[in-house]
Amino acid sequence: MQGIRLTQDAAIHLERELSLQDGYDAVRVEVQGGGCSGYRYNLSLDSIPRAGDDISEHHGVKLYYNAILFKPLLDGMTIDFDEGLMGGFKFLNPNATASCGCGESFAG
User: Fold this and answer.
1) What is the pLDDT of residues 45-73, one digit of tens each?
2) What global pTM score does this model have?
């Protein structure tokens, strides 16, 4: 299993969010139905892994994602962060067969 990776830029921004919120020590990565391409990414703060979670740590940030549910859609993905004008989190997903122009939704 390859799991999900974070770039150092993404980790810096997620680490900042975690430091501002009491009781959270990890980021959960999920997929939800929606967006213009069928699925959209969801990042949320979490503190307790769930059954079926893949747990990894990158640049000091812990990630959880349910490998049982989301492996075909997320395995091997890299999350990056861009500071530019249209910046924000960027999802570099080798499993996406199509994505929308905004980069926040994809087809699997």
Assistant:
1) 999 999 999 999 999 999 999 998 888 88
2) 0.85
Provide the pLDDT for residue 100.
65
98-105 mean pLDDT = 62
Contacts 24+ apart (CB under 8 A), 48-57: 54/1, 54/3, 54/4, 55/26, 56/3, 56/4, 56/5
CA distances from residue 56 to 3, 35, 39, 78, 85 in whole angstroms, order as listed: 8, 27, 23, 13, 30
**DSSP summary character for residue 84:** S
3-state helix, strand, coil in the chain (%, to 5): 20, 40, 40
Q: How many CA atoms lie within 13 A of 12 on its CB side?
A: 8
Name the pairing type of β-strands 53-58 and 61-66: antiparallel
